[in-house]
Write a structure and sequence with these properties.
homodimer; 222 residues; alpha/beta; Rossmann fold; 10 helices; DNA-binding
DNA sequence: CGCGCATTCGGTAGTATTACTGAAAAGCTG
DNA sequence: CAGCTTTTCAGTAATACTACCGAATGCGCG
């Protein structure tokens, strides 16, 4: 009751890859990397999203390795279209951003993988093989944003929260009212209120519901 | 400014794999598959979660390929412990279930991949290579539940919320106070309060901060 | 049609949170 | 030591939310 969707090609035949990036230099670099691998074959190159879509429809590659930021039509929109017209082609997005919002958008557009441009040739090949085999591949840096964080390296904190504030935030996010937070930390309710207000100040004027998100982003919940 | 966390081993050296499954037959099958691959080396085998953890600490494998359902200590708890004591070891979970809840639990326990037992040898090897290289790998069937769909159906709702309640929940989770939710939906504050209280009733007596989590679980936020 | 359910709204009361201002003690740093 | 941050706590007032109560409308279903 699963098993439709992309690829799942026969092993034996090489993986047919279509490259899409507006920078020739980048395409050259990638092609150079991929040409050394027997199992991979670069069947075409596109310089923008629209070209990527039409070339993909013509060539029907196993994998479309595509940059997100391109002129005419960006990779996001292109990914959407390819996923519709060519469900057999796995879209693997290549980007310089490890921004969570960005990653989310990309995978929702139907990409089956997201890799960063600073990865090694080995990893790039693995990623291509992965999506071509029918799986999903994500670079280490973007994985946590997908699975809801909890990596181990405590995400560094863009808000500049103090230790105490993190403790309070954690307790609040777990659903405790100020009174119980106070009891848990052995401080007065007023103090908890102070921290709470400082938190709202620091993270932006978000309400209680939103504090959960922040706590989660900071990995305070596990 | 990323790059800590697991693996990211040198290419050249073989990937050291620790197998954990309570069925000898399964272990034998997997080992047979992996032994044919030069880049992979099975360095040990465990028959339950506790054994997997202690063997992992001793052998420090690149990848721990582990079943979820095992006696003594299940794979979920084992994954958590390994992630704490051995951040360098990538946990790749092997399971027969493509149940969304299950997958979520597993990745939140820190697994860097989730594959189904019915996959091909090729895909299993790709998956192992993927997590060993520092990436995240997910089988085709479980990927959609991770990325929040775009492929499959809108996560079914264990709470039995109504359409209107979902709208209200969504607005609350986005951080709006009742007053603004009312304005947005064109209803009175009292009605929003009703919905809010009904929501708390339905999802359990969680507070405002926790409502965010529910909204997220239900995919109301994107 | 009567019943249940979703949706809407009101009253009243109490609790919680926010928005201010102000301040004291502890610790670190130049 | 003076200045800084962190953490602590207080007063006061407004706003928001919770916990109950009850009730009207509309809609589908047996």
């Amino acid at each position: 009751m699963h098993s439709h969707s992309p690829a799942r090609r026969q092993s034996g035949k090489p993986v047919r890859v279509l490259l899409a990036d507006d920078h020739e230099l980048v395409r050259d670099g990638i092609r150079a990397r991929l040409q050394k691998v027997a199992d991979l074959e670069v069947v075409g190159e596109a310089t923008n999203g629209r070209e990527a879509v039409s070339l993909a429809e013509e060539l029907r590659p196993d994998v479309l390795l595509m940059d997100v930021s391109m002129p005419v039509m960006n990779g996001l929109e292109a990914a959407r279209q390819v996923r519709k017209s060519l469900p057999e082609t796995a879209v693997l997005v290549l980007s310089v951003y490890d921004n969570p919002e960005y990653v989310r958008g990309v995978v929702q557009a139907g990409a089956r993988g997201y890799i960063l441009k600073d990865i090694s040739a080995t990893e790039m090949i693995t990623a291509i093989t992965s999506v071509a085999t029918g799986g999903y591949y994500f670079s280490a840096a973007v994985g946590p944003t997908l699975v809801g964080a909890a990596t181990s390296a405590p995400v560094e904190d863009p808000y500049g929260l103090t230790e105490r504030e993190r403790q309070v935030l954690s307790a609040i996010a777990r659903g405790q009212p100020n009174k119980e937070v106070a009891k848990e930390l052995g401080i007065s309710v007023r103090t908890v209120e102070s921290h709470r207000l400082n938190l709202r100040e620091k993270v932006g004027n978000k309400n209680a519901a939103q504090l959960y998100k922040v706590a989660q982003d900071l990995g305070l919940l596990d």
